[in-house]
Specification:
Layout (H helix, E strand, L loop, with lengths): L16 E6 L5 H10 L7 E4 L3 H11 L2 H6 L6 H4 L2 E4 L4 H10 L26 E5 L3 H4 L11 H22 L7 E6 L6 E3 L13 H7 E3 L1 H4 L5 E7 L20 E7 L2 E17 L2 E8 L3
Parallel strand pairs: 1-5, 1-8, 2-3, 2-4, 4-5
Antiparallel strand pairs: 6-7, 8-9, 9-10, 10-11
Helix pairs in contact: 5-7
Length: 292
């Protein structure tokens, strides 16, 4: 079963498209990839994220107990070797990546391109993850505030869907559609204008007005996905626990709410603790699940 956690964490229902938002743990995409790829020797994954340094930093700081103790084991390491990771630093780079990212069976692009070993996949992936695309639109000092619109974000999603459809058609595997998951911790709060102002002369320079003109990207982005997973942290409750040796003082429960857009009334909820303990000279994070 697919999961965003190590075992015995909660499993996900079957899905083809998944949106993960909120304060998810940094290793959640890793667990989704590992749980999927471990199901079949032919399964492969693609992870697209804006920054190599940021994702590595977050994984090192979180230091997931399961990854720390299992990633190099003989039955786990081959799973991660079947994941291709790409780091396009901007929306333009992401669009270019998808135009040159190819497998042997895919049709030739309209413009002749030299095959690049770094963007040549061994075979079609069975799962594609787009990680933290909101960071493209929240970085300060790189682009003018009027550069991006709601459609800028949605276009990235549409481009990934388009690439997946081309791959599926090339490999003719309708019985095994490629899974697409979007992970974005900033999506809940991301707001962009619907349209770009046609000229600076219409920009009144009032930040309050600019904020008023912005619209929630989430309301439109979530319509592309059949399954929505929202991570939340309970900052009010202080639970008792039997695993005191693993717990920091006054830990907080974390929650996952999971539902399908076609069945919004069937809400699944899970909760767990993320507890730090000392392993060697490093703090390691262990999941303690509420299985009651």
């Amino acid at each position: 079963m697919l999961s965003l956690f190590p075992q015995p964490g909660p499993s996900l229902r079957d899905f083809q498209t998944l949106l993960v938002k909120g304060a998810y743990h940094s290793s959640a995409p890793v667990h989704l990839l590992a749980s999927h790829i471990s199901q079949s020797e032919n399964a492969r994954g693609v992870l697209i994220t804006p920054s190599r340094s940021k994702i590595l930093k977050s994984l090192v700081e979180f230091n997931d107990d399961w990854i720390a103790n299992n990633a190099l084991l003989g039955h786990v390491a081959p799973i991660f070797s079947r994941v291709s990771v790409f780091y396009p630093p901007s929306p333009a780079h992401l669009s270019m990546l998808l135009s040159v990212l190819r497998t042997a069976n895919m049709p030739e692009p309209p413009v002749a391109l030299e095959i690049n070993r770094e963007t040549a996949l061994v075979t079609a992936p069975s799962i594609v993850i787009l990680h933290e695309p909101a960071s493209y639109f929240t970085s300060r000092g790189i682009h003018d505030r009027n550069t991006w619109t709601v459609s800028s974000y949605l276009t990235l999603i549409a481009r990934v869907f388009r690439w997946i459809s081309v791959v599926e058609k090339a490999f003719d595997t309708p019985h095994r559609p490629i899974i697409f998951a979007l992970f974005d911790s900033q999506l809940d709060n991301l707001k962009l204008p619907l349209v770009k102002m046609p000229s600076k002369r219409y920009d009144i320079g009032n930040e309050a007005y600019e904020a008023e003109r912005n619209e929630s990207v989430l309301l439109l982005a979530e319509k592309y996905f059949e399954c929505i997973a929202t991570f939340k942290e309970d900052i009010a409750e202080v639970p008792s626990s039997q695993d005191e040796e693993l717990m920091t003082d006054h830990p907080n429960w974390r929650h996952l709410e999971l539902f399908r857009r076609d069945r919004p009334d069937e809400l699944e909820t899970f909760r767990w603790l993320e507890s730090e303990y000392q392993q060697g000279n490093k703090n390691t994070t262990k999941f303690v699940f509420d299985l009651s």
